[in-house]
Design goal:
Helix content is 43%, strand content 23%. The chain is of the alpha/beta class and 385 residues long. The relative contact order is 0.11. It binds S-adenosylmethionine (SAM) and iron/sulfur cluster. The site of S-adenosylmethionine has 15 residues, from strand 4 and strand 5.
Amino acid sequence: MTRPAPLGVYIHWPFCKSKCPYCDFNSHVREGIDQARWRRALLAELEHAAREAPGRRVETMFFGGGTPSLMEPQTVGALIARTRQLWDSAPDIEITLEANPTSVEAAKFAALAQAGVNRVSLGVQALDPAALSFLGREHSADEALEAIATARAHFPRHSFDLIYARPGQTAESWLAELERALALAGEHLSLYQLTIERGTRFYAEQARGAFTLPGEEEAARMFEQTQARLEAAGLPAYEISNHAQPGAACRHNLIYWRYQDYVGVGPGAHGRFAQGDTKRATRRASGPENWLAEVETQGHGTVETSVVTGQDRVEEALMMGLRLADGIDRALFASVAGADPVEALGEAKLEPLVRAGFLDVQPGHLKATPAGRQRLNALLERLIA
Ligand SMILES: C[S@@+](CC[C@H](N)C(=O)[O-])C[C@H]1O[C@@H](n2cnc3c(N)ncnc32)[C@H](O)[C@@H]1O
Ligand code: SF4
């Protein structure tokens, strides 16, 4: 008997205690959230997702946000239990939850572990108090250290996020912060370069000259040093911003980057899953109140559903797969995107990029070289033009 196709389940919790000035994720500050009502709605949409993608085996779940560590552990537990009833699930299922490292949230870790969460990803962002205040964070550096220790005590796997290339930061000061991070790290670290997103408070502040980011060359130097230092520490990059010990990558995020199947539940969540020979794309209403109203009237908050075919499917899979250090497994790509990537792109497009040292084409794989990954957007423009 063949094994059911693997599936990832993403659940979005759209609320935060305050809005960070750099963040353009679907996250909102609201007073008095009715947790029981949200629990009912998320469970209803989960059931809808099981009708959309039935008969799979759930390999991973991911509670993302927003700030899912503000969810009641009872809600997290109910969603995990229902997922296991609705689908077959892997015995080694990975269940990640994103947490902010305040002491209030760390106090919930035991209950979250009890509810079934077995991996936590902490948004530490910086270990320097002045940087935490600039980033508008609700936690202190000491609270973050304590939250990492609490996470280590309660979850078999944990990771934390840092943001670098901040105003005033030099490659030297970042490397010193990175050393401290490595001393605290477990099997996984996510290290993001600060990006200024349209519509955020930082966008307006940067536009009126309230701060300046490190220059392009300095930022590139920080990126290169990050890659080298993490590799030496035994946590090489497996994706542009994600580093892990061998075998410790986030399996849920690998599903996205390999263009495998996932369903998305909750405001603004996206899904991509195979339907026969095509890929179905879904998107839920992004405003929390709109989403809730839709679910309460029709059982789901889907505002867009389409079929991704042909070249679009190849391009989506390419944009995801070239982020990975191991690149694209051509056989797997053909099974999820419907075509071999090298044949679909053609020799004329690939050859100059291989010659320039940005791409590596082998019988079994297609990958961006480190230089190619560093300028992935430009590389993709050349490939997808
Ligand atoms: C969706 S956030 C959720 C995590 C959690 N709410 C928190 O703040 O810790 C996931 C991660 O994206 C990163 N991130 C968000 N906006 C960013 C930006 N503009 N530049 C760089 N990293 C960013 C942060 O490191 C953050 O931890
Ligand atoms: S970074 Fe995290 S806590 Fe801050 S607004 Fe975004 S999702 Fe919320």
